[in-house]
Amino acid sequence: LKEQDELKSASHEKDFSYYKVSDGTYSFEDSISHRSLLDYENWRHLNIPSVFIPATEMLSHAKGFLALNQKFKMPFDATQIDIIVNASLPEVREEPAALHGVLEKISDAIGGTVIMEDDSFYVLKKEGYKVDFSLEAEGLRKLGLLWKLIRNGLLEPGSILLWDEPEANLNPELYPLVADILLELQKNEVQIFAATHSYNFAKYLEIRRAEKEQVMFHNLYKD
């Protein structure tokens, strides 16, 4: 595992990791390389707008993060850096009209909107005061991040959202809201891939979808 983790570094571009897995009766073996892990040149020319939300909440750590990462070798996955970059982009001049309802739902849940000042994120409450992003519950921070991505124009028709464990640290009472938001994005032609360990969260997507909505489930299990 250590060798495979090191392959993410540019200094290991020509290296590869060989591994063999066995349960005593059956076994398989394979190898992976830096290129097979990180080379996506074949996809780049397609220019598909996409956003990946990692399971780790990152906006509460944004203060000075990008500057430090540019100067030093930070021990963070590229996707964790990328989400801060995406959230830090300026908002589009006009909010997407089709997603106004989604923005309103999120705003009601977090009690305001998300702003960025002096390299830090805050929730600007409807009463007019600011709350540091790190002081909000992590589940609400997930919703705040989604609000910012929509407001920045990154989730629009034809784009792709990949979300790793949207239910992690989310109050179960918010499962129906998040399910409704994902279904609403799907209605507006955002392709969504969500990886979840929660049967309950997946069930909400199933029972709240309308017949015309396209929802597929892929179950990975050990046999």
* Physical arrangement of strands within the biggest beta sheet: 3-7-8
Round the Cα radius of gyration to an integer and report it. Answer: 20 Å
The portion of residues forming beta strands comes to 15-25%
Task: Give the overall average pLDDT.
Answer: 86
Number of helices: 9
Biggest pleated-sheet summary: 3 strands, parallel
Which stretches are poorly predicted, pLDDT < 50 over at least 5 residues? Answer: none
Helical/strand content category: alpha/beta
Q: What's the number of extended β-strand segments?
A: 8
Q: What order do the helices and strands follow?
A: HEEHHEHHHEEEHEHEH
Distance between the termini: 23 Å
Shape: globular
Q: Into which percent range does the helicity of residues fall? A: 25-40%
Characteristics of this structure?
single chain, 223 residues, alpha/beta, three-stranded parallel beta sheet, three-stranded antiparallel beta sheet, 9 helices, 8 strands
Explain this structure.
Strand 7, helix 8 and strand 8 (about 190-195) form a beta-alpha-beta unit. The chain has about 220 residues and is of the alpha/beta class. It is about 35% helix and about 20% strand. Strands 3-7-8 form a three-stranded parallel beta sheet. It contains nine helices and eight strands. It has helices at about 1-5, 35-40, 40-45, 65-70, 80-90, 100-110, 140-150, 175-185, 200-210, and strands at about 15-20, 25-35, 50-55, 110-115, 120-125, 130, 160-165, 190-195. It is globular.
